[in-house]
Specification:
Layout: E1 6-11, H1 17-31, E2 46-54, E3 57-69, E4 74-82, H2 91-105, E5 111-113, H3 121-129
Parallel strand pairs: 4-5
Antiparallel strand pairs: 1-2, 2-3, 3-4
Length: 144
């Protein structure tokens, strides 16, 4: 399936399929208790969107929103998401590979960073398979 996936770049999220998919991903994580409730999607973010065949049509099925940080020579991933019925088909890997290429060639970045909830075992497993490593843990104390 990954050969049939088209990846589109968006320089901003307004009025794009990237925004809808990112919001859908945030809502799913929130429903599963895998978010802190804060929505971190900004219109100035850049995005790659995976477009896949769906019968006779093509459908936006995955997104990776990110923010290049040129002074730090890194890229920060804000949100990545693949709609459930298209998971396991190489779509996330295609998005990741496109981001790695873009960060390396276009941005001359030295790292790609992101965060996820400690209980998001699926994302943590994918990241590990891609050669990413866990670098820090956020500690929190809620006040009354």
């Amino acid at each position: 399936m990954s050969d049939e996936i088209e990846i589109q770049f968006f320089d901003g999220l307004n009025n794009t399929p990237a925004l809808e998919l990112a919001m859908r991903g945030w809502a799913e994580m929130h429903e599963k208790g895998l978010s802190d409730g804060n929505l971190n999607i900004h219109s100035s973010l850049k995005a790659f969107v995976a477009i896949a065949p769906n019968g006779h049509d093509k459908l936006p099925v995955g997104v990776m929103t990110f923010d290049p940080e040129p002074t730090l020579r890194r890229v920060w991933i804000f949100q990545s998401y693949v709609i459930p019925e298209f998971r396991g088909r190489g779509i996330y890997t295609a998005l990741w590979n496109k981001l790695v290429e873009y960060a390396t060639v276009e941005l001359k970045a030295k790292s790609i960073q992101s965060g996820t909830h400690v209980r998001n075992s699926a994302m943590r497993a994918v990241a590990k398979r891609q050669g990413r490593y866990e670098e820090s843990v956020l500690l929190r104390f809620d006040l009354p």
